[in-house]
Amino acid sequence: MPLSCSQLSVFYGRRKALDGFKLSMKQGEIRALIGPNGSGKSTALQALAGLLVPAEGEVTIEDVSVANMSRRAIAKKLAFLPQQPSAPDEMTVAQLVRQGRFAHVGLFRSYDRRDEEAIDWALDSTGLSSLADRTLRELSGGERQRAWISAALAQEAGILLLDEPTSFLDIGYQVEVLDLVHRLSRERGVTIIMAIHDINQAIAVSDRISLLEKGELRFDGEPSVLAESGLIEKTFRVKGRFVQVSPDAPPHFDVELTRLNQREA
């Protein structure tokens, strides 16, 4: 398995932010992590990336414990894009994306043709080739998010962890990012785990879904099974139903907005 963990628990002080989380990924699989705010999605991603030391459990990449790997060795296997990454506003898009090659280049080797090709591909895949010379200050929120995704792609890791990758994007770019995620999985065999708020996007693009609540794993399985379980309504405390638009389309969750258009008597 490219990536797996078992009985993963993480504490913030005395609070248990992740409790016995388990996950096993196949190569090229797309896994969505969903759940209410504070459910442990970001914590799970950081623990999988080796950025948090779990109090219990273990994360392995290709059967090797992350605890026994250097940061550079991890970076060659796994790329992680946090929800709110930061970089100097004066940095250009091209400079940011070039940083994605650090695990391969290191401190002493110069960039070769293979590195430049990876950088050009990452920029092109995210529609940023024409903005390569712009500084981050000049970008819109959506463009800046795509620049960070481009940097993660330039890393060419076989595992990609994304924390809310469609945040700050309008609907058009959300679709483009999710399409890119799907192509990376199917065409390049990249294993992808992403925390995402939009339930319908998660169902549409993922092979499996992990539903978290208060740090505990409530569901782990195929989107169609989740749609029939009633857990979405219960976990998110909303009224709604899944609608099957066509036999070939994924189920769509339709929330009942009962308070809209209410008027005072």
Automatic annotation (TrEMBL):
Where in the numbering of this chain does the ABC transporter domain appear?
A: 3-239
Write down the membrane topology: Peripheral membrane protein
The processes (GO biological process) annotated in the record are: iron ion transport
The UniProt entry's coiled-coil ranges are none
Compartments, as annotated in UniProt: Cell membrane
Instruction: Give the GO cellular component terms, alphabetically.
Output: plasma membrane
Q: Which organism is it from?
A: Rhizobium miluonense
Protein name per UniProt? Iron complex transport system ATP-binding protein
